[in-house]
Structure formats: structure tokens, C-alpha cells
Hints:
alpha+beta; 35% helix; 6-stranded mixed β-sheet; Wheat Germ Agglutinin (Isolectin 2), domain 1; globular; single chain; 8 helices; two-stranded antiparallel ribbon; CATH 3.30.1330.20
Amino acid sequence: xxxxxxLIDAFxxxxxxxxxxxxxxxxxxxxxxxxxVERAGSSGELHCILEIGDNHxxxxxxxxxxxxxxxxxxxFCIEKTGWGKLAFTLVxxxxxxxxxxxxxxxxxxxxxxxxxxxxxxxxxxxxEIPEEEVWEMVNVLWDAxxxxxxxxxxxxxxxxxxxxxxxxxxxxxxCGELVAVAYLRVxxxxxxxxxxxxxxx
Length: 201
């Protein structure tokens, strides 16, 4: 599969085309190349530490990174710091090494001034913007030389301790829903889930 095919599939996964998911895909692919690894399979041999935050317009970066690297929430191989930055560290757990990749905004003025972003600023959903305007914005970042839009750090040692998968589910004595045993809380003589326990965590 070509990198362009990965981008198109990532847009399908994400739900729309946008600049942040575009650069997320490029960053994810660059990190894989830097580490000399393939996209994560079912065993979660890679781990991604995203530096995005909450409720900002560049969170789409995360879906691009997630799709390109194969690091997913369900495999518990992706986490976020909450720093509001378009950057991440990809860890090769087996080799215990990592690389950090961040977005360089050298072309961001072109992105911000694109017809796509002007319409987004007017509240028009990305799926309602003409395709030619969408691709014009996407290509500003996709066709740029890598060194102009990405900062790729050195590959560094990254010690990794694997704690293993938490096995076992048990029904909550209050609501009856299954809960991973490590998340049960004891209230009196009953084992209950966190929401039913009254505890915050």
C-alpha cells in the first residue's frame, strides 16, 4: 500500500479530510521509518505517547497518527499527555527505543489562509466543503518536503516495562455490568464498579 493510500484510508477512518489528520499521518509514517518498524499489529509492539490536549482544533492529528502507526486505544498502546501540542513519541517496546516527531508550522500560514480553513472558520463542516478546496489544503502539507513540515528527533533508548494484560471480569454487585477485576471497589462487603462505588477512581 502506498503512503497516499494510507492517507486516504486514514481519512475514511477519521470521517473527514483535514490538515491535522494529514500531518498526523505523515508524522506517523515518518516515525515508523525512523525506527525501522512496521505498523503495529495485534500484539501492540509499539506504544505512542501523544502530546495533544482536549477540545482544540488540532486533535484530528491523533487519528492520523493512530491510523498510520496502528497504535490504538483498544490495544492500550496509545496515551496522551494533555499538553495541546502536535507531537508524539513512538516507542518500539521490544527494542526499547523511541523517536519524537512534531509538526513544524512553516507552511501553516498557507493552511490557515486556504479556502478550506476560511470556510471552516465560518462554521461550515469539513464534509460540506468542495473536494478541490479540501485537497488543495491537504496537499499544502502532504506534498511539502518532510523536513519543512516535520521535526524528527534522534532515535533514543527508551526502557520499557510491560505490566501485562489485566485478566478477569466480575459483575458489579450494584449494576450487574462486567468490570475488569482491578477496577472493582469494595463498599461494605460488596464488590462494585467505580461509578456505583461513589469513588472518583
